[in-house]
Amino acid sequence: MAEETWNRLDGRAEAVVQAGRIGELHQHWHGAEARVQSAPFQLPPESAWFENRHREQDIISRAVQGHPVRCGPLVVALTGIGGIGKTALGYRVARGLADRYPDGVLCVDLDDLRRDGVVEVADAVGELLTGMGMSPEWLEKSLSGRTKQLWSRTRDKQMIVVVDNARFGTEVMSLLPASDRSLVIVTSQGALYDLEGTATVEVLLGPLALDDAVRLLGRLVDDPRLVAEPNAARDLAQGCGGLPAALQVAGQWVRKYRRRSLSRLVAELTAELHGKGIPMVEAVWDAAYAALDPEAGRLYRLLSQFPGPRIEEPAVAAMLGCDLAAAGDALEELERAGLLEGQGKGWRMHGLLRGHAERRARGKDPDGAERAGARRALIIWTRRQAARADLLAAGSRMTFAEIPEPAGTGVSDIEFDGKQGALRWLEAQRHALYRCVRLAFEDGLYEDAWALCEPLWTHFLDHPHYADITDAFRTGVDAADRTENLPAMVRMRCQLARPLWEQGQYEEAAECLRHALATSASLGESVAERKLKASVTEFQGLLKAETGDLAGAAVDFEASRAIHTEIGNAYGVLLQTYLLGRIALRGGQHQEAVDLLREAHQAAKGQERERMMARTGFELGRALRLTGCPEEAHLLVMAALEGARRRSSQTDEVRILEELAELADMSGEADTAETHRTAARRIAAEYGAATGDAQSS
Q1: What's the rounded Cα separation, in Å, for the pair 527 and 523?
Q2: 653 in Cβ contact with 429 (< 8 Å)
């Protein structure tokens, strides 16, 4: 070959052929570009252990069907806490849609490539390329070079890419195929806010419902004990908190300990899960916690102590001693990390994550000082908010605890939307309020414990959650005794007596009142102390009325009214007049009842006591019906119904609807009567509302 005809080749080529004259060429490819003839399919074998997620699969199916062209690949982001089943759902969706994407399914787990919290994205892109058949020696060295190789190879493809365990959108961007006919399924604990420029559908996974969890447990392990002990099986599933990963651990325990009863396994596994965590997700939660900034990390540890299921910014600000903006920032960071679930305007922490937070707290705060300080701050803040809500909802009434001073700089009070807003807050926060009573007592904050019970009384009158209120008032009695505060000792026993007798526990209620009466003998003669003595007498009358001693009840109400008259307590006079009218009504003295209840109703209007206006009006309406005045009765009862609905008092609403049915029967309106009774039955069935005869201060 002449010197001037030589050729130089730079760069890479798969095959080079040089000849002066070519007649016939047969080329045999041995390089990696033609190595894979069939479409890749990197999904693991299908698991028989899957339950529900129908809603989530429907969302994804509709998104696939409606994905427009020239919008890039469709990205489905599955988010939720570790162990919730994101990967299993992602694999199931990919498997179900594989026929729609004939160019294959690729999978990459970013946690496999993560070092010290950071992913080498170039390695992840390399995994996708080698999955498509490219030999490692042909991979570009840089991330940008490999990304271009991926774009080149996927521009006309119709394929699925599953990206597991992403933490940031930036980790995913370079892994997206170029074709708008492809689907990318990404799993992450928190929302990928920085996943930009893509058509993304976010699907949040929550815990499995209890019935689904029970069925999944049955799929995980075939054991006759699950059938023989159905209640224990439900307890076992419930203890796993709807987490498929925890249910797998439960299934392993059932298989491992075949001679133990399920009831025993429930207790042992619950202790294991909350004490040590779930091996397969503990590392995931540890990594998410380790990546938090210091303030979010402190909040995460403290949330293991949070008393209620719903977490909101004002209470968090009280725990942290900061303003609302800083509290919101910390909560949002926990949500992004997948350690909290967003719930409308609040957040919720999964029960098993609380256990993880507690383990991290013990490691960082071994003597518990950090947690104790946060608990105290939250208890005092909660006591202040509850007392403010009670004052707004019920007006000035007999209480003995001072409202605490505002918390430190930046910590905000709740802004209640009037009386109804205050009542709604008490109902929405009732779990936290009841739990705070117990936390205060356990921490030796005895005054705070019984003081928290005082606003719970107002809430109890409209929302009788008996198990909660009985436990709270028992704790209040013990706390008052520890402080040796005589008025609190008397008041707590009176308030405990009522839920006891309403549950038929008459002897214990009577014992509470005997103790309250004996203690009240040591009180002085101030107006407040005499008012409390009158209240004890009133409660005695209420218990007598509850057990059928109407004459004895009337004597006590008259005696209480006399004391209130002497000390000039107009509300006390109103209340005792109302109670005397109810006794007369029960005793068949209908006209006397009308007179007493009309007097009480006028007094309630004059004092602008909304609850008592409704209740005196209701009882007056009953008395008027029985004396043959249905028209006036109907107006009063309808006004009472409006009041009950404003207060969201289902108990009162049931009684009032039943009375409206009686009035309709009296007017010959059978259909209207049945409508009212049906509505009453529905409310009673839905809320467990109960009727009763007693109403006290």
Answers
A1: 11
A2: no
Q: Are residues 110 and 228 in the same domain?
A: no
pLDDT above 70 coverage of the chain, percent: 92
585 neighbors 619 (Cβ within 8 angstroms): yes
> Is residue 181 one of the residues assigned to a domain?
yes
Give the per-residue pLDDT at 408.
67
Same domain? For 250 and 175 the reply is no
pLDDT digits (tens, 9 = 90+) for 167-202: 888 899 999 999 989 999 999 988 888 887 777 888
Nearest to 616 by CA among 597, 596, 592: 597
Tally of domains within the chain? 4
Q: Could you tell me the CATH number of the domain that includes residue 690? A: 1.25.40.10
Question: What is the reported pLDDT for 548?
Answer: 94
Q: By the 8 A CB rule, do 693 and 546 touch?
A: yes
Query: Could you tell me what percent of the chain has a pLDDT over 90?
Result: 49
For the chain, give the longest Cα–Cα distance.
133
Asked if 646 and 462 count as a contact pair (C-beta separation under 8 A), the reply is: no
Per-residue pLDDT tens over the stretch 219-230: 888 888 888 888
- Rounded to the nearest 10 degrees, the angle between the axes of helix 418-428 and helix 446-462 is 110
Distance of CA 278 to the CA centre of its chain: 22
Which residues 6+ apart lie within 8 Å of 24 measured at CB?
A: none
Position 280 pLDDT exceeds 60: yes
Neighbours of 422 (CB within 10 A): 24
* Same domain, yes or no: 312 and 440: yes
Calpha distance 656→579 (Å, rounded): 18
| Whole-Å CA distances, 634 to 151, 615, 666 | 76, 14, 11
**69 plus 151 within the same structural domain:** yes
Which letter, b or e, does each residue of 297-328 get, where b requires 16 or more Cβ atoms within 10 Å of its Cβ?
Answer: bbbbbbbbbbbbebbbbbbbbbbbbbeeebbe
Measured CA to CA, the distance from residue 270 to residue 83 in angstroms comes to: 16
CA distance 645 to 657: 11
User: pTM here?
Assistant: 0.70
Domain that holds residue 64: 54-204
Domain boundary among 253, 280, 307: 280
Which residues, 6+ apart, have CB-to-CB distance to 250 below 8 Å? Answer: 217, 220, 236, 237, 239, 240, 265, 269
Phi, psi of 109 (to 5 degrees): -105, 110
Q: Is residue 535 part of a domain?
A: no
Question: How is residue 41 annotated by DSSP?
Answer: B
Q: 14 φ, ψ to 5°?
A: -75, -35
Q: Let me know whether 160 and 216 are in one domain.
A: no
Which residues does 623 contact at the CB level (< 8 Å), separation at least 6?
581, 585, 590, 593, 594, 597
With respect to residue 545, please indicate whether it lies within any of the assigned structural domains: no
**Domain annotation covers residue 70:** yes
Residues 306 and 417 in one domain: yes
